[in-house]
Amino acid sequence: MQKKEDNTSDMKVETDLNKIKKTAEKKEDENWEFRSFLIGI
Description:
- It is a single chain.
- This protein has 2 helices and no strands.
- By secondary structure, the protein is an all-alpha fold.
- The relative contact order is 0.09.
């Protein structure tokens, strides 16, 4: 039996608030569409 590869160690959580804010602003429309989708289900 093969061991399943665990990629969680490659994940990075962004902690720079300026980077998070810039990314959120760039994805504002996408985020709004996703929130609207969640409300509809």
